[in-house]
Amino acid sequence: MYEVTVESHFSSGHYLRDYHGKCENPHGHNYRVLVTLAGEELEPNGLLLDFKILKDILKPVVNYLDHQMINDLEPFTRVNPSAENLARYFFDETNTRLADVTKGRVRVKSSTIFETDTSQATYSE
């Protein structure tokens, strides 16, 4: 199995519903996101997927959240914008966009969101 990972960054605000503590108040983070792809077969040029293509796939997902109050955006008007749910969001959105490009040859293996340098959440299937 081959894997490739790209990293991106965005800054956003959020607050946690049904939470008692500081994070129930609006606050912001400089998020870091890692998306790892996996596949068994390389393209004829020896790449699983060109890093530039993966970055282009990831860019609209990042831009949707960048400099926004995440709670005001779908699906986070209904889903709490926790790091865990953001990791799942990046996994699902990237996988959907990736399927259109690679026809299922490559899939998202995992998505990791860093809220801080020392706090992260990962979603994988």
Please explain how this structure is put together:
The mean pLDDT is 96. With 125 residues, the protein is an alpha+beta fold. The chain is built from two helices and four strands, in the order ββααββ. A hairpin with a 2-residue loop joins strand 3 and strand 4. Helix 1 packs across helix 2. The chain is 28% helix and 34% strand. Strands 1-2-3-4 form a four-stranded antiparallel beta sheet, with helices on one face.
Task: Please describe the topology of this protein.
Blueprint: E1 2-14, E2 27-39, H1 51-65, H2 83-102, E3 107-116, E4 119-124
Antiparallel strand pairs: 1-2, 2-3, 3-4
Helix pairs in contact: 1-2
Report the span from N to C terminus: 15 Å
Largest sheet: 4 strands, antiparallel
- Summed over residues and divided by their number, the pLDDT gives a mean of 96
Structure annotation, total helices: 2
Number of strands: 4
The whole-angstrom Rg is 15 Å
Q: Return the string of H and E elements.
A: EEHHEE
- What would the principal axes of the Cα set say about the shape? elongated
Helix content: 25-40%
User: How large a portion of the residues is in β-strands, by DSSP E?
Assistant: 25-35%
Q: Walk across the major sheet and give the strand order.
A: 1-2-3-4
